[in-house]
Every structure is written in C-alpha cells, then in structure tokens.
Design a protein that fits this description.
The protein is α/β, with parallel strands linked by helices. Helix content is 39%, strand content 19%. It has a single domain, classed as Flavodoxin domain (Rossmann fold, 3-Layer(aba) Sandwich). Strands 1, 2, 3, 4, 5 and 6 form a six-stranded mixed sheet that branches. Strand 3 and strand 4 form a beta hairpin.
C-alpha cells in the first residue's frame, strides 16, 4: 500500500503533524511519502492520500487548496482523508464563535463532494520564532500551557484509524 501524506504548513506545526501521521502509517506497513502539498506533481502510483493544512482566518493554506483543485479527478477515485490544524490559545467552550473559524467551509464542502472519508481538526502550535506583529502579540498573550495544543495521542489514534481502514480495504481486494 503506497500512501501520500501531503501538507501545507506555515510555521512547521502542520508539517510535524503530517510527519507523525506518516510515521504511524509506515509503522503499520504502508509505504509512505510525506511531502509539502505544493510539490506534488501527480497522484499516480498512490493507493491513498492524507492531506492536511494549517487554517488561518477560516482558510486553508493556498498550496493545500491548489492540491485539491489540481488533483480532484484522481482524489475522487482514491480513499483519502483530510486534517486541519491551527487552534491555539485558551479554549473557550462556552463561546460558539470560538470554534467557528476552525473549519474552512468552502474547502471542506469541496473535499466532502470529492469523497474524502473524514476530516478532523487538530490543535496547533504558536510559531516558535514569531515573525510579525500579530504572531508576536499572540505569543505574548497566550499562556504557556496553551501555546501548543496538539494532542499527539489524538493524532496517532486518528492515523491508526486511517491505517486500519486501509488494511481492511486491501484485505477486501479490488471491487468486482
């Protein structure tokens, strides 16, 4: 089973999540390539795809959106999964607006139409080296326990679920 894990990351957090997912898939026996989404020329030779993107102001990174547009025909014929990453800071469960920005609605609607098997949102991490005013302000105002909200156990469990689906599908063989 050959699997592509493609990602679009601004500050490295989403890339680290993609690498962990790729590692879990490889641990279960898949042959995995983990690469930046913008560098993928073709999906030929892949049996499945996992695509992830950082989310900023309700939008995926441009290279992830282009990936979906460029490979839409191939994706429609493959098993594939999607993840987003990004929320940082102190969770505000009582504020319905606090989670509204997590989902890029048009992009997720597109991936659902193309048959993505699942979409999950993982927590993100503040930039390790803030580069602009907004990033520096976020770093100053975010309490340390909330600067990195990635839940590695959740990420590995999700990847294990993807691997289990892939293994079940490969045991079933091709459709008649």
């Amino acid at each position: 089973m050959r699997v592509l894990v493609a990602y679009a990351s601004k500050n490295g957090s989403t890339a680290e999540i993609a690498e962990r997912i790729a590692g879990e898939l490889a641990r279960t026996g898949a042959d995995v390539d983990c690469v930046e989404a913008g560098t993928v020329g073709s999906l030929g030779g892949y049996d499945a795809v996992v695509l992830g993107s950082a989310v900023y102001t309700k939008r995926w990174r441009p290279s992830a959106r282009r990936f979906v547009r460029r490979h839409r025909r191939a994706l429609a014929g493959l098993p594939w999964w999607v993840f987003s990453s990004g929320p940082v800071g102190e969770p505000k469960p009582d504020d319905p607006r606090a989670t509204a920005w997590l989902e890029p609605p048009r992009t997720i609607a597109r991936v659902e139409r193309l048959g993505a098997r699942a979409h999950v949102v993982f927590g993100g991490r503040l930039p390790l080296q803030p580069r602009n005013f907004v990033e520096r302000a976020m770093a100053r105002s975010t309490p340390a326990p909330f600067a990195d909200r990635r839940d590695w156990d959740e990420i590995v469990a999700w990847a294990a679920g993807v691997a289990a689906e892939l293994q079940a599908g490969s045991r079933a063989g091709p459709p008649p």
